[in-house]
Amino acid sequence: EGHTDLIWKLASIPDSDLFVTGSSDGGCRVWNVKDGGEVGKEMVHGERVHAIVVSRDGKTMASGGCDKIVVWSLESREKIVEWKASSSVWSLAMSQDSQTLVTGHSNGTVILWNALTGGHIVGPFKLQDGGIRALSFSADDSQIATGGLWSDYIRVMYSYSAEVPFPPFKAHNGWIQSLVWLPNGQLISASFDGTIKYWDTSNAPLLIATSQGHTGSVCTLAVSSDGKLLASASHDGTARLWNTST
Question: Is the link from the previous residue into 124 a cis peptide, with omega within 30 of 0?
Fold first, then answer.
């Protein structure tokens, strides 16, 4: 039972004991964290799934892969809308109101879409030389942060224009694997170099703190809804919880 190939992404469903996985087998599945059992039917994307994101209200999710983007109802597990991707989708982020979906692509561009209809809003914007590995909306949806393959620089843009609040900045000694924004406006980055860093981006980026503990690259981050707890997972085979206020 379960996936038959590599699992690329995992995302929790807010206010529940459920989480979603996306796999190279072309499917997305929902699981119960308490017993590990699968819940409901598989959502069949088609080609391999590189990225998933769950809406803040837990009602919908999106999957992206080599060929297309699909928005799903998590209640019925049916497709709401799908559209063709111009290049492979490597990362996804959804606005706080679940209305806007941003896609990060293998060619280093990001595009903004209407998450309900699949309609194009703006983009593509070229933000990275390599594929967009990390992608995150700020807490107020006004900015989007990106990290790219083979790049140790973070690039931030205003959400609906090509303008930037500050130039790209070197954040790590390895490419950026994951980015999350806290409700207080701090940006957290995780890298192939095994570190997690906290940034004040209210003006020019300022390093606030660095968390070390993983012995391998940090591949993904997730933050609690109140911003107080941060979870990280690493290629060292461990997951860790961090208090963001200390």
Answer: yes
